[in-house]
Amino acid sequence: MNICIVGTGYVGLVSAACFAEMGNHVWCVDVDPNVVTTLKQGKIHIFEPGLEDLVKRNYEDERLFFTTDLKEGMAKAKLIFICVGTPCGADGSCDLKYVEAVAREVGQTINEPKIIVDKSTVPVGTADKVRKIVREELDKRGLDIDFDVASNPEFLKEGDAVNDFMKPDRVVVGTEKSDTRKAFETLYAPYARSREKLIFMGTRSAEMTKYAANCMLATKISFINEMAGICEKVGANVREVRIGIGADHRIGYYFIYPGVGYGGSCFPKDVKALINTAREVGARPELIEAVDSVNNRQKKMLASKILNYYDQQGGVRGKTLALWGLAFKANTDDMRESSALSIISELTAAGMKIRAFDPVAHTKAAAILRDNDLVEIVNNQYEVLEGANALAVVTDWNQFRNPDFDRIKEALVAPIIFDGRNLYDPAHMGDSGFAYFSVGRRAVGTER
């Protein structure tokens, strides 16, 4: 099939490369000529395991094309996927200006029937809004061209997006037209060879499904983080509690890892957007409001532990913290809504110096934190420890899971670790001579 992808951000580029990998011809449109030039050179502007090789191979095999010209990108395409950003407004609402701009240009350009697809995460009713904009632009041109607007939300995990796309749990499509349904059946057939994965529904239901899914996952994260806080108060171990509840197949083990809260481009924005949508229609989204509130608190939890620990030692001012991990999760360079930023903000506001390391996100982090004189980004995992008063682990990169603890102890001023991801065993840490603080588990080594 011939496909046009508008927007080569995270969703757009992954979708384009994976569609091309199955033999489709895909034209990617981006307004930034520098991005287009970079992609034509076989390089990608985002970090995602496996994606660069996929892009390079399909571009060289002439199944993947890049342009800044929407007219060129749409010329041969039957399906036009809108994959542009939908940032969160100050009030939590979803800003649709980029989606609307694409819809307007599509209406000003098309000369034959097309299927327009919202793949960006958008509020319920956006497909109707896009349809209205395209129709208005066609009316201005005096044209009556048949077109459809469908919803095909993405369910990709950053760090494993290529695998998620190629082997999806499900593919949700919102449409009311049989011809559109047939087009999607053809497009997604190679991704569902072992079982039927296509789920068709109404357009508004598909739009709602995306938000409901992310809010459910965010709820599980906030739930286990709240349980972790209670465990610390009552002397329980959240790791054991997690095993006990996760064994119930109705609950499961996924997304009930306690930590420093969720971040990234999806959960924070989508939770806030659904809260805003619910309020607009007169609903009371009390549960997801609580999910958001718990997460905001959890993102500052590790900073609070550090501040409390040093409160009896004259405070953190003038002290230095080594910090491992800046991205919101492992296997990405995405700094959006990263808990590390909240932790750094809290501690530097109190006068603490931060020396931070991240194997991938260091460049983006340095740009974000360049105006904070108390922050230094270091490019070596162990160099960051030299002369620091303590170590904080914030992102669960694999290389942090089994580090050289003797080397850590030797480099730090004192053997103190604040583990925001529960990567280490408290008993082992205590036996190794560390003062060790984690999430939802009793601190060890604090009597020294």
Features:
448 residues; alpha/beta; six-stranded parallel sheet
How would you explain this protein's 3D organization?
This protein is α/β, with parallel strands linked by helices. Helices cover 43% and strands 13% of the residues. It is built from 17 helices and 14 strands. Strands 3-2-1-4-5-6 form a six-stranded parallel sheet, with helices on both faces. Strands 11-10-9-12-13-14 form a six-stranded parallel sheet. Strand 4, helix 5 and strand 5 form a beta-alpha-beta unit. Helix 9 crosses helix 12. The protein is elongated.
Describe how the helices and strands are arranged.
Elements (H helix, E strand, L loop, with lengths): L1 E5 L3 H12 L3 E5 L3 H8 L10 H10 L3 E4 L2 H5 L4 E4 L14 H13 L4 E5 L7 H16 L5 E5 L9 H6 L4 E4 L3 H11 L9 E4 L1 H32 L3 H9 L20 H14 L5 H13 L2 H11 L8 E5 L14 H11 L3 E5 L4 H7 L6 E3 L12 E4 L11 H7 L4 E4 L6 H6 L3 E3 L11
Parallel strand pairs: 1-2, 1-4, 2-3, 4-5, 5-6, 7-8, 9-10, 9-12, 10-11, 12-13, 13-14
